[in-house]
Amino acid sequence: MRQEETIRQVLQEVYEEAGAVDEGELAGYIPQLASVNPEFFALSVCDTAGNCYAVGDRGQSFTLQSVSKVLAHACVLSHCDEERLGQRVGVEPTGEDFDSIVKLDQHRRAFNPMVNTGAIAIADLLLSIYGEDALPKSRSFFASTMGVDSLDIDQSVFESELATGERNRAIGHLLKNFKLLDHPVKEVLELYFAHCSLCATTDQLARLGASLANGGQLPGGGERVLDPAVVRKVLSVMLSCGMYNDAGRWIYDVGLPAKSGVSGCLLVVVPGELGIAAYSPRIDNRGTSVRGLMAVRLLSERLNLHLFA
Length: 309
Ligand code: GLN
Hints:
The protein has about 300 residues and is α+β, with helices and mostly antiparallel strands. It contains 13 helices and 7 strands.
């Protein structure tokens, strides 16, 4: 285990260095996300023993956006058989943008759960599993993985994406065309957008990361919230696909399972040891927080966190 003092010190250094960067843009394609304070910056680290360290705006909540894909994947794996999921969603990285439609059209199956095609197909499976309670039930499952009772929905972000998400609607219709959805596109997208609009803080995400690092048990000897076999699958897909078209470079340089969201949040797992979360709303052209990316790269380097180090 890494020393507490070292973690605190490196976290502070990295916060100052990455905080000096102001490149990137807010995710204005979801209009409501363009109105957040671009200067927010928080980093949290939680170890499997339950010790948490944080710097910056740790109390600031943000919408999970694509980080919710990790939870939807865990949820569907916990409730449906692998074969059913595998018929609709694979585990191959796309090398494309998160909202790419090209490969879906070519392969007639969603490439993986970490991109929009896969997450929308998974939202449909969750509707089959839970019926009309799909949102409250999946939402409470998501909350349990962070050890909290409930997660708020940012209604304005939800409505903003619902009003503008034509590309996701196009993905929904294409999935439907290939008989990969059993429910109306509108219903499926409402669930998908609601998942993207759930709110958390970096402390909560770091706790989720620590549960994933801990084989599905909440840090500090808490409750088992995920099956170890589910965690193994989720982390594998996060490692190969969580950073979209940056996945190869990310594994090479940082070497950790991760998932980014266009709100500027980033979830990273150091298996057996730590959950790390970053939040800073200015994102690069791949949809990942510029400061978050830099901070995690530096943390991995300075704390020697690369899986193959
Ligand atoms: N809600 C966003 C979308 O579907 C999520 C994308 C992301 O965070 N990468 O476009």
